């Protein structure tokens, strides 16, 4: 019987995961582990909608602003570090909270990564040449043809993810989506997954409003201070790449902002596609009431 419980709060960007995670952490007097891979980087607070100082003070958080953008940090390293941190938390608490919208990072914690082959040097060289000569769009086309299911959910602007998936497919002859679907490691804690859902129009409105708020809070200045690092993997993400294009003079500011909103909505759509395939997520409605929260606590009690 597993007496340790990990409550994993999931959902698309902008849906309100941070607030729910804090409410749960405060109720259970426990700590929060973030699995939002963009919020790891301390220089990117505004553009990643990292928890505010006030929110961080409400509950103890881990893996928020713990890295610099120049630091390399793999999903495998995160899996090890997150499990070690959870073991520490479980020494004093029976419940811990996991929160974030980085789907593969949540999977790494709750299931474990698969024993996939190391990168193949010849494949990587060939793919790098394609990237340099034909652009990331060609890699997107290759992955879409080889594995349309993974193409639906992967961050198609992250060329490293594309390179890795295509390389593994070429090596194994199997779809990457099928390989990562098989859980490799059992965990010594029970997982209860909680999601927040909303009508798509309402979610998209929230995303658009959040981008406007980021700009009011200084996103433009934050991105400008990071322009020197624009070629690093950490900065190849929505909210920054569009502004770097604006700084280069290729776009005007209004168009760059519209692209941030559009790409944020596209990312949310990919997240929704991923979560829709799961049958173990208990959903709350956006704007949940006190009664809804109490019902959630009862649900958690029943699942323990």
TrEMBL record:
Its EC number is 2.5.1.75. It catalyses: adenosine(37) in tRNA + dimethylallyl diphosphate = N(6)-dimethylallyladenosine(37) in tRNA + diphosphate. Residues 36-39 are annotated as: Interaction with substrate tRNA. ATP binds at residues 11-18. The keyword Cytoplasm does not apply. This is tRNA dimethylallyltransferase. It comes from the Bacteria. SUPFAM superfamilies: P-loop containing nucleoside triphosphate hydrolases. Monomer. It comes from Chryseobacterium oryzae. Keywords: ATP-binding, Magnesium, Nucleotide-binding, Transferase, tRNA processing.
